[in-house]
Specification:
The protein is of the alpha/beta class and 249 residues long. The chain is built from 12 helices and 8 strands. 43% of the residues lie in helices and 14% in strands. The longest helix is centred in the C-terminal third of the chain and has 18 residues. It comes from Halomonas koreensis. It catalyses: D-glyceraldehyde 3-phosphate = dihydroxyacetone phosphate.
Length: 249
Amino acid sequence: MPTPLIAGNWKMNGSRDLVEAFGRAFEEAALPAGVEVALMVPFPFLEAAGRAFAGTPVALGAQTLSDRPAGAFTGEVSGEMLRDCGASQVLVGHSERRTLFGEDDAAVLARVRAALGVGLTPVLCLGETLEERDAGRTEAVVLGQLEAVFDALSPGERARLVIAYEPVWAIGTGRTATPEQAQAVHGALRARLRRYDAALAEGMRLLYGGSMKADNAAELLAQPDIDGGLVGGASLKVDDFLAICQSAG
């Protein structure tokens, strides 16, 4: 069974004070054995978070990266820079990057390769819009996004990823997929991964990323193919995020 992972995505939120509050809280937190925790903080807070999370179980992550290693790309941040700040993980293909910033499957693949090239763990985000769900295209969309990346990677590269299913219609809307809806997609993802390799499918961590909160985390995490969460708004509240982490045990 994959090791549970609870990852928080702060998006364009937070402050140095919040970084320090999380560092203090997780220094003393009693987490279930075997549960891993990561926080994806905005670029300006990476170094401060690296210091604040030192000595805690929290791994440092970033929210995206450039597909270029260096150069005249004003405003971009490379994987090497993220590593230099202490990050070990990075989100790739979050729905907000796809819809607001025009990242298509090719751009997502390029960023996955850039992350792998510098030793970062890509957390590959997949998900459908409300229109796609209502049209009965959920599996076609989500599995298509998976295949656009996995078909281009070697077996060894595939094994280094984490996958997060985040139904776009349940992000920041207050709506949440039912545990049964979430499990259905996670089950389909696991089944598709078996077509690449059975061991890959059994070891791959599949996170649920659609408005996971303290009051619904336990039920979602109890589903057989949900191995953790990619938490949005609740990851900005120390007590709520701790409660979600404790639900993963």
